[in-house]
Amino acid sequence: MRFTIPEHKKLTHEMIIPIRWGDMDAMGHVNNTIYFRYLEIVRLEWLGTLGNLPAPTGIGPVIVNAFCNFYKQLEFPGDILARHYVCNPGRTSFDTYITLERADDPGVIYAAGGAKTVWVDFPKQKSVPLPDAVRALLD
User: Are 88 and 94 in contact, with CB atoms under 8 Å apart?
Assistant: First the structure.
C-alpha cells in the first residue's frame, strides 16, 4: 500500500543525508531501524533551525508516535534527499511527514514516514500550547 502525504501539508525543510557503510545490514541494504534515524535527523535539523530543540529543563517537542513505510531499498553509497512537511496543527501538537529519496534518483520516494509531535513542559511532564513562533510556521 502506498502512503500519501496529506494535500494540506507545508514543506518546511530539505536536507541531504549521506548513506553510511555502517547503515547497511547483512542483506546489503540500509537496515530498517536506520530509516527512523534518518527521520529523526531531519526532524531535529528542522527544529534546530527554529531554535526549538528539546530542552529537558524547559519546554519543547516530544514524539508520541512514529511510522515509516518502505518502498525501495536504500543502498550504500549514495545520498538521501529528505523533505520534511508539517500539517494538522492543534493546540499542543502537529503532524510531521518526511519523504526519503536518493539524490541520484530524483522524484522516486524510497521511504516515507512521520510522527505526531506534542509540545510539553518537561519538568511537569505535561503538554503545553505550541509557542506562537512555532504555530506561525505551521499555519
Answer: yes
SS3 129: coil
The pTM (predicted TM-score) of the whole model is 0.90
Indicate the SS3 state at residue 71.
coil
CA proximity to 97, closest of 112, 109, 117, 111? 112
At 52-66, the pLDDT tens digits run: 777 788 999 999 999
CA distance 76 to 60: 34
Place of cell 547497511: 24
Radius of gyration of the CA atoms of the chain, in A: 16
List, for residues 67-82, the tens digit of each pLDDT value: 999 999 999 999 999 9
Closest CA to 109 of 119, 100, 98: 100
Helix, coil or strand: residue 34: helix
List the domain boundaries for the chain: 10-138
> What is the residue type of 78?
G
Q: What CATH number should be reported for the domain whose range is 10-138? A: 3.10.129.10
